[in-house]
Amino acid sequence: MQRSDPDQSSPLPHATVRRGWGPLLLAALVFAISLLVTWVAWNGARRVVAADLEAQFDYRARDLATGTVRRMAVYEQVLRGLRGFMRGTVEIERRDFAEYFRVQNLQEHFPGIEALGIASIVPPRRIAAHEAAIRAHGFPGYSVHPAGERPIVTSITHIEPFTGRNLRAFGYDMYSEPVRQRAMAAARDTGTAAMSGKVVLVQEGSNPQPGFLMYLPIYRAGMPSTTLDERRAAIVGWAYAPFRMNDLMRGVGGAHASDLDVTIYDGTRAEPEALLFRSQPTPSWRSPLLRRTLSATISGRPWTLEIASSPSFEARLDDTRPRVIAGTGIGLGFLLSLVVWLLASERRRALQLARAMTLELRQSYERIAAERARMNVILHNAHDAFVAVDANGRITDWNAQAARLFGWSAQEALERDAGELLLAPQDAVPGARGFARLRAHDGAPIVPGEPAELALRGRDGRVLPVEIVVALLPAEVGRGASAFMRDLRPRKQFEERERLRQQGLDEARAALARSQKLEAVGKLTGGVVHDFNNILHIVSANVQLMLKSGKNSEKRLHGILDAVDRGAKLASQLLAFARRQPLHPSVVNVAQLLDRMDSLLHRAAGDSVEIARSAPEGLWHTLVDPNQLENVLLNLVINARDAMEGRGKVTIRLDNARIEHADADAEILPGDYVLVAVADTGQGMPPDVMERAFEPFFTTKPEGKGTGLGLSMAHGFVKQSGGHIRLESRLGAGTTVSIYLPRCEAEAERMPASPGPSHTMQGS
């Protein structure tokens, strides 16, 4: 049967019509598919742009919330500095308070603070006297307001800057207003900063802003404030700062404040009456593209922040890429449909097939090249070193991380034998057997797919600990193996640092336990000694009465009085350890004090003990009780003499010490100190004795040779004087006791010559 020529027209009716519409329909279908693909690409690009904008918004919103919390933490620190300046009293000179405010320059460095002030507690029965006293200082119009009887009355007695609208707050009783009262009571009862709810400041005029106040309690100096009842009994007033919300938030947003519409509510619910701040009103017809609700807790007070994107921020949505994708896709789709229409209309099917095969082959080559390039990018940017070998053990792949780790470039490593290149010379075996001889650090063979540790050799000969995971290549791809290797040196260094850090933590915990132990013993000793002193006073009084009566038991009574004196001395030592002894500090130059004690120290040490002293020129002064310091120094010299069994050398070194940062001991604060170090050449102390050296009644001397209170008394005296004492000793290398006394800027006072026998003390 004769076949019709494909170029000839079909004899069937309407065949010409079908042949004319077929390519056009195919081209339309291709165009529709290209439009669909273009829409998918356009939608994906638009989603990426929108996600990027949303990520920027989330960062800005959280940065705003975090910045607000940080700013308020800074203001809380300002109040803490004011409380430290006041030192537990509200009775400070106004010029001193004004000078403190001026030196701090708060309005420049801490924008948002309306003022700094002090709210003092005024007993109701002393209101009239309080008002009269303030008026006598040049404020004739001063009065505590609002008037009325209340169980607790306060008054703003100090406020800076003392100008403008702040004058309206002078004398105001903030405790009379419920919102302020709750915050003041919370600060008083917790001992921490507390922030009030939404209020209108008394400084406001005709156009008020929402505001709030931050309070920090001031407890009377010297009174305990550990429990709730103690804090309520010790409270004398509050340091506080008022804030106007609009002024505060003006500087928080930074350079991009206009990008966000911010609304802040007091509390956990967004209610109109709790509105604190709104950056700008949002039209009712506008719906923000992005919105977040965040919460923040500031000084115990919760805030709710509603943050929305502004039109200026939403205008940053860059739709250039989606538009380019849409235009390019439509244009390429039209061209592709045109090509399809032309190809479909072509009569020569062989040419069409050749073109299609050529296009497909080209695309295949491009896909293979793209896949190879993609794999190269992945391998060369991998965090781990990648090495592949063929069946003969020669390297076929070597990524950039392998070059950095082992020192061989890819050009130098490729086609080299892996065993000879990476193994130590004694372990190197050429060929496939070399790679097979790799062993983990414990000698076990490496299992494919499971990580193992082993040591390889770098170009410079160094041994490199690595973690390796080996994968065997199947026979279809030519056999061989590939391995990912991770450098273990950073991890091992981290593990060593972690071990040292944990060791330091353990030592710090042990030091803290020893400090807490001494503190607990000190508190117990203080209570016992006060009762013991009361008993001694009664015994002493009765004995003196019996002496006056003239009975024949005078000798025995004198013995009782001697016992009373010894008990009083023991009580004084215990009080010194417990940091409860009465001190009479004065400005002392320790070098001059040692000059006055020179003969006393030599008599106490004995002729066989050499005493050496050193002190720098310009030695700082310190504020300390000189008599107690003499007792401590004398006791340390006696201890050194006993440790050297009456023969050796005692060195007393004086120096100026400046502690820049918190010491590793964690007990001495940064500052300037006068160092007094007493060192001997005795046998030293073992670690177990050093740990208990400051405990009361602990001694290594024979019975009757010491009370065990010398070092504990020195520890209590130094701590009570605001200093720090440190003990250093090694067996066979002697002992050094270092005392750090705070520096005093004042001039030293003239002191009488040191008495001799009254300074003698029993050693520890």
How would you characterize the overall build of this protein?
The protein is of the alpha+beta class. The chain is 45% helix and 20% strand. It contains 20 helices and 21 strands. The strands form four sheets. Strands 15, 16, 17, 18, 19, 20 and 21 form a seven-stranded mixed β-sheet that branches. Strand 12 and strand 13 (463-473) form a beta hairpin. Mean pLDDT is 79; it is low at 1-18, 429-434 and 753-764.
Shape: flat
The portion of residues assigned to helices is 40-55%
Rg measurement, Å: 43 Å
- Give the biggest sheet: 7 strands, mixed
- SS elements, strand count: 21
Q: How far is the N terminus from the C terminus?
A: 131 Å
Summarize model confidence as the mean pLDDT. 79
The secondary structure category is: alpha+beta
Number of helical segments with 4 or more residues: 20
Uncertain runs with pLDDT below 50, 5 residues or more? 1-18, 429-434, 753-764
Strand content: 15-25%
Give descriptors for this structure.
single chain, 764 residues, alpha+beta, seven-stranded mixed sheet, five-stranded antiparallel sheet, 20 helices, flat, disordered C terminus
List the helices and strands and how they pair.
Layout: H1 15-86, H2 94-104, H3 106-109, E1 116-122, H4 127-136, E2 153-160, H5 178-190, E3 194-195, E4 211-219, H6 228-234, E5 235-244, H7 245-250, E6 260-266, E7 275-278, E8 291-298, E9 301-309, H8 311-314, H9 320-345, H10 349-380, E10 385-389, E11 395-398, H11 400-406, H12 410-413, H13 418-422, H14 432-436, E12 452-457, E13 463-473, E14 480-487, H15 489-549, H16 554-578, E15 586-588, H17 590-605, E16 609-614, E17 621-624, H18 626-643, E18 648-659, E19 671-680, H19 687-691, H20 710-720, E20 724-730, E21 734-744
Parallel strand pairs: 16-18
Antiparallel strand pairs: 1-2, 1-5, 3-4, 4-5, 6-7, 6-9, 8-9, 10-11, 10-14, 12-13, 13-14, 15-17, 17-21, 18-19, 19-21, 20-21
